[in-house]
Amino acid sequence: MSKNYDVIIAGCGAAGLYAAINLPSELNILILCKRDLPLCNSSLAQGGIAGVYNSPGDNIQYHQNDTLIAGSFKNNVEAVHTLVSEAAQDIEHIIKLGVEFDKNPDGTYHRTLEGGHSHHRIFHHADATGKEITSTLLENVQQLSNVTIMENTMMCSVKQTKTGYSALLKLADDSYETCNCHFMIMATGGIGRVYQFTTNSAIATGDGITFAYEMGAKIKNLSYVQFHPTAFNNRATRECFLISEAVRGEGAYLLNCHKERFMHNYDERLELAPRDVVSHAIILES
Ligand SMILES: Cc1cc2nc3c(=O)[nH]c(=O)nc-3n(C[C@H](O)[C@H](O)[C@H](O)COP(=O)(O)OP(=O)(O)OC[C@H]3O[C@@H](n4cnc5c(N)ncnc54)[C@H](O)[C@@H]3O)c2cc1C
Prior knowledge:
Blueprint: E1 3-10, H1 14-22, E2 29-32, H2 41-44, E3 49-50, H3 60-70, H4 77-97, E4 111-112, E5 122-123, H5 129-142, E6 147-150, E7 154-160, E8 165-170, E9 176-186, H6 207-214, E10 231-232, E11 241-242, H7 245-249, H8 275-285
Parallel strand pairs: 1-2, 1-9, 2-6
Antiparallel strand pairs: 3-5, 4-5, 7-8, 8-9, 10-11
Helix pairs in contact: 1-5, 3-4
């Protein structure tokens, strides 16, 4: 037997949860999460969330320029503009939903610095910002009577129908079910797990990209994957614990095997050059 929804959101990370909060409350929404709820890249995010919000001395033009420089001007300018100009209202919105960012003794928000940013504009919750954001968003979504969350439920395939989409789901008890909807949001996260070593969660296998491709979407720029330059190598597993860039933002140096700093040989922004530049320099040093 199949079930019908107005919207199915595939993915229960920050993107999927925030989409559910922002959709009209009269819609009947299903959110899918293929593993346990906390297992997603959003809850791993440490450093914080960039945005110009109540930030004297900073403005969205600086944020936009920094983003374009970090993207070697290959960015979609319209998308960058949306990102930087909507950041303030989204930061304010999630604060109202209950997200707590660290504050200075005078009550203003503490903002740290990360690579590529010319100003201190990273709002954070200690070094567990993603966990704070996802757990708060989840608490809010769980109070919405129009939203159902199915945990340990994997979307295996999707096809277009005359009225929307039909999704085949593998449920927690290994049985299968079909769900139909008028609209579908793919919020299944990234593709980090295609690499041998990664800081990404086990769920980051690009499922949404595959489904979209199978339904005829044109996929581009798959090689534009951002690597975290610094991670803890435990020599035992593929999974590497991220050593956040915010550590360099607060003054940490990178040393080569001779215990010498080397970033000055590659970029005047030193340890806070954009991540692709730092990653490249580390590879050349090793
Ligand atoms: C270690 C680490 C640190 C980071 N630090 C920062 C930071 O400080 N600041 C920052 O801005 N960004 C940071 N990022 C990047 C950021 O976390 C991600 O860009 C963002 O969280 C992606 O959110 P998302 O909701 O799109 O995906 P995710 O949070 O990865 O969520 C994907 C969801 O999709 C579900 N899913 C996937 N496939 C299926 C399927 N077939 N069926 C059903 N459900 C499915 C998963 O179960 C999961 O719930 C970091 C990333 C990592 C890995």
